């Protein structure tokens, strides 16, 4: 006999407290349920149920077996559900959290193609520079740039960018250009307020030494695009990801402050709630973004 069917019959008898109710639950005859349980006991060489005319209860061995059998049956059910969900068409409301600058420059332009590809999905994109709690605030997915905090959330890398210090030619003409990291202490620095490290820039010297620059900053805001605008306006030096300043640099509006510094790649990730299975709408959106950023990148837009 099928081992899972035997296991299911036994577990259902325990759950329902008898063969009659178990048969009704499984949609088979009482004799069939009894046959499955008897076959299981014969195969295991152990009595799993105490049977009387009034009730059926698990033996000590049967109770231990039941706990493990129920886990196996639940896992099998989840495996079946996984196949079903993977074949299901993505539907429903997709709630996305993304920083304002990245959402405006990189998600908004590609949402149309995604929605046309998945007409049964609706999108609620919340653009905010606040770090949201995905589960408690009801988000399906967040796009995050930079190092990820340790958490139970799942993450998939979408692309990479690089951070550099940039300033306007007019600023460097007025205040000079820093030649090394220590020179930054004499300059006007523009800070992003939502960084977990605060007003600290983590840099790498040409020697490979890790350095930190601490400064209150002449201007601190919570939006990368505003920082770029301030740098273009000659207010100081900003430390920004390449996807923000790339166009401005091509147009000569900003220049790199210390060109010979090593630059570390910065990951861009889709972050989503934990669990064995990913909702089809979430999986579809992440797969779509991976394809888009692989073809277009993020730094050349």
Contiguous low-pLDDT stretches (5 residues minimum) are none
Termini, distance in Å? 62 Å
Radius of gyration: 30 Å
Q: What is the ordering of alpha helices and beta strands?
A: HHHEEHEHEEEHEEEEHEHEEH
Largest sheet: 9 strands, mixed
If you had to describe this structure to a student in words, what would you say it looks like?
The strands form 3 sheets. Strands 3, 4, 5, 6, 7, 10, 11, 12 and 13 form a 9-stranded mixed β-sheet that branches. A two-stranded antiparallel sheet has the order 1-2. The protein has a two-stranded antiparallel sheet with strand order 8-9. Helix 1 crosses helix 3 (30-44). The chain has 9 helices and 13 strands. The protein is elongated and about 100 Å long. It has helices spanning 3-16, 19-26, 30-44, 60-87, 100-117, 169-175, 224-232, 242-250, 280-296; strands at residues 49-51, 56-58, 92-98, 121-127, 141-145, 154-167, 189-192, 200-204, 210-214, 219-221, 237-241, 255-256, 265-272. With 301 residues, the chain is α/β, with parallel strands linked by helices. Among the domains are: 3-87, Arc Repressor Mutant, subunit A (Orthogonal Bundle); 161-265, D-Maltodextrin-Binding Protein, domain 2 (3-Layer(aba) Sandwich).
Name its key features:
24% strand; alpha/beta; Arc Repressor Mutant, subunit A; 301 residues; elongated; 13 strands; D-Maltodextrin-Binding Protein, domain 2
């Amino acid at each position: 006999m099928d081992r899972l069917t035997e296991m299911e019959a036994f577990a259902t008898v325990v759950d329902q407290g008898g063969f009659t109710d178990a048969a009704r639950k499984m949609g088979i005859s009482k004799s069939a349920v009894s046959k499955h349980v008897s076959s299981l006991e014969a195969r295991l060489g152990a009595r799993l149920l105490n049977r009387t005319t009034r009730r059926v209860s698990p033996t000590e061995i049967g109770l231990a077996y039941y706990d493990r059998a129920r886990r196996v049956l639940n896992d099998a059910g989840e495996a079946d559900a996984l196949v079903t969900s993977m074949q299901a068409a993505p539907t429903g409301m997709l709630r996305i959290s993304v920083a304002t600058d990245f959402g405006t420059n990189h998600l908004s332009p590609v949402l149309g193609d995604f929605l046309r590809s998945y007409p049964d999905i609706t999108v609620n994109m919340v653009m905010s520079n606040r770090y949201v709690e995905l589960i408690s605030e009801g988000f399906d997915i967040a796009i995050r740039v930079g190092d990820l905090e340790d958490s139970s959330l799942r993450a998939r890398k979408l692309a990479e960018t690089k951070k550099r210090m940039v300033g306007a030619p007019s600023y460097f003409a007025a205040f000079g250009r820093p030649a090394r990291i220590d020179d930054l202490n004499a300059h006007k620095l523009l800070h992003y307020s939502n960084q977990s490290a605060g007003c600290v820039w983590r840099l790498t010297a040409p020697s490979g030494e890790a350095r930190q620059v601490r400064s209150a900053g002449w201007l601190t805001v919570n939006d990368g695009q505003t920082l770029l605008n301030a740098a273009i306006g000659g207010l100081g030096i900003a430390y920004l990801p390449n996807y923000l300043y790339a166009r401005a640099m091509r147009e000569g509006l900003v220049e790199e402050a210390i060109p010979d510094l090593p630059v570390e790649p910065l990951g861009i990730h889709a972050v989503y709630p934990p669990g064995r299975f990913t909702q089809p709408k979430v999986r579809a959106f992440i797969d779509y973004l991976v394809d888009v950023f692989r073809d277009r990148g993020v730094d050349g837009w």
